[in-house]
Structures are given as C-alpha cells and as structure tokens.
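BUG: 3D viewer hangs when loading the predicted structure for this chain

Environment: internal workstation, default settings.
Expected: structure renders.
Actual: progress bar stalls at 90%.

Input used:
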Amino acid sequence: MGGGANIDKESISLEISRYLAEKSNYVLSVIWHEIIHLAFEKEYFFQILKTQFPNDRESLNLIKETTARALFPRGILAKKFLQINDDKRVLLHPKISSLHTKQIINLIESYIQKKEGFRR
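Structure tokens produced before the viewer hung:
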C-alpha cells in the first residue's frame, strides 16, 4: 500500500492490492499524505526548504518526507482524525532514529496545538 504525488500538479496515485475494507482509514490517511505533498509542500514548504538547503537534495527530501509523515499516514493528524493506531515504534523515516522521531512528532504537535503554521 502506497501512493505518490508525482503525476502532475493536480493528481495523486494510490497503490492498493488486496487491502482489507476495515483498514479504509489508513487508505484515507495515505491520501491525505499525498495531498500534503501535492498542495502544501510543492507550493510553499518546498520553497522554504530550498532556501535553507540549496545544494543538498538528500536533506531536502528527507525533511519534506519526514514532515509529511509526522502528520499522515501514521502521524499526529492521522491519530486525531482517523483513529490510526499510534505505534511509537514506527519510525517516520528509516534514516531518522526513534528518539528523533519522537522529538519531531512533539515539535509538530506543539505547532498544531498552538495553531501555528510552518514559517520562514
């Protein structure tokens, strides 16, 4: 089960094979993850990151993917709105330790609680 936001500026894709109907909230969570990439990240967040990491594509991609994953499919908003099980052992990204995963989740959760956006 996965998805992508790399078809064009208006489309996402989902890859689903024999997925249980009881897991439909997780499918919705992946859809939201891809919408973040499509709508928010490419127009706004990516531009901020490019100014901070102009010659470091690997760090740029790691940060944008980790940030999106902290919200959906198993992140803070997935738990809050779709009742996705918050398994603390799940890493946001294979290159990010469980300690740093927890720190990132806590940071983003504080932004959400304060209703702050990600700013320059």
